[in-house]
Amino acid sequence: MRAFVTLDLPEALIAPLTRLQAGLDVGRAVPEDNLHLTLAFLGEVSAAALSDLALGLEGLSLAPVELSLRGLDLFGGRKPGVLFAAVEATPDLTRLHAKVLQAVRAAGIGMGRERFRPHVTIARLPRVLGPKHERRLADFLHLNGAFSTPPATATSVTIYESHLRPEGPLHLPLASVDLRSQATP
User: Fold this and answer.
1) Residues noted as catalytic
2) Where is this motif: HXTX 1 (predicted)?
3) Distance (Å, rounded) from C-alpha 145 to C-alpha 166?
4) Which end of the chain is less congested by CB atoms within 10 angstroms, N or C?
5) What is the CATH number of the domain that holds 19?
6) Segment 25-38, tens digit of pLDDT
7) What does the alpha-carbon distance between residue 54 and residue 64 come to, in Å, rounded to a whole number?
8) Which of 161, 153, 159, 155 is nearest to 176 (CA)?
C-alpha cells in the first residue's frame, strides 16, 4: 500500500491555513483533514513493514515539537504544481525527522535520499496555468508571501495509507503515536 508518516498539525496552525486557503482562487486547496507535515514518504510498502514501523515509532523516545509557519513558496520550478507554507526547520523538528527515518529503516523500508524541506502543502496547482491564473497566483503570493504563525505544539505522529483519486487523495490513518506520552522528563 502507498504510505507516508506525518507530524500532525495542531489546530492553532490549521485554522490560519484554512483562512489563507479561502483567499486562493487558483488550483485545488488541500482539504483541512489532509493538512500535515510529511516526515517520510514511504511509497509502496507492505502491511507487515508498516506494522513494524508503528512498533518502532512507539519504541522511540519522541517529544512534542514546536512548529512555526514562515512564508509561502512553490514547488515545481517554472511550472509549479504545489503551493506550500514553509515550516521553520528547528533543531527539535530535525531531530524528530531523523528519529522517524531511523524507525523507517529499522522496519526494513528503503527510502531514497531526499533533503528534508519541512512544509505544509496548501494547494495543488493545474499542470498548465494560463496568464489569468498566473497573475492571480502572483498576486496571492505578493499579498500573503510573508504569512507566518506563532509557534504551536505538534503532539502526534501518524502513519497514513494514501489512495490517489481524481477528486484528490484519500488519506487513512493506520497508526498514531502520541508524543506527549513518550516525552522523557
Assistant:
1) 36, 119
2) 36-39
3) 29
4) C
5) 3.90.1140.10
6) 999 999 999 999 99
7) 17
8) 159
Residue 183 has pLDDT above 70, yes or no: no
| Closest to 46 measured CA to CA, from 38, 54, 57 | 54
Please state, in angstroms and rounded to a whole number, the distance separating the CA atoms of residues 175 and 55.
9
Cα separation of the two ends of the chain:
37
Q: Of 165, 77, 72, 161, which is closest to residue 120 (Cα–Cα)?
A: 72
Instruction: Give the count of domains, the chain.
Output: 1
Q: How far apart are CA 111 and CA 171, in angstroms?
A: 20
Sign of torsion over alpha carbons 113, 116, 122, 123: negative
- What are the C-alpha distances in Å from 141 to residues 29, 148, 162, 182? 15, 13, 29, 39
Containing structural domain, residue 55: 2-182
Q: pTM of the full predicted structure?
A: 0.91
> Is-contact 8 177, C-beta < 8 A?
no
Tell the burial category of 84 from Cβ atoms under 10 Å away from its Cβ (0-12, 13-18, 19+): buried
The radius of gyration of the chain from alpha carbons, rounded to an integer in Å, stands at: 17
